[in-house]
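Section 5.1 Outputs to date
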Amino acid sequence: MKYKFNESEMTTFAERLGRLLEAGDILILTGDLGAGKTTFTKGIAKGLGISQMVKSPTFTIVREYDGGRLPLYHMDIYRIGDDPDSFDMESYLEAGGVSIIEWGELLEEDLPQNYLQIKFSYTEDNVREVSFETHGVRAGEILTQIT
């Protein structure tokens, strides 16, 4: 299923999703540069009650945000490619927060078994297309609640 959003609508949708997320939930965000992955993460953070400014983790690999009802671990693994051992990703996935992994498709078989994959594309008319793919029971529950 595909959704079409302008930037404001996408942030609002992500905020609603953030309110539904539970400790241990994992979101994999895929899409071209500028397609809306970090904007979506800002909405998730707002839904979690996090007031810190959310920035892209491209150069830091991981950004941690506290102060909401759950911590948020925002990862960008583009620079590490298919080598998840170059940082301790497992510790974040098991830390009791919400993990968002940009470019997570690069991890292939190293991905956990249960996650919600969100694919972004950007059209010329300022519309972002967002589609969802579930992996595991919890991801299906999340998608059912948000749609």
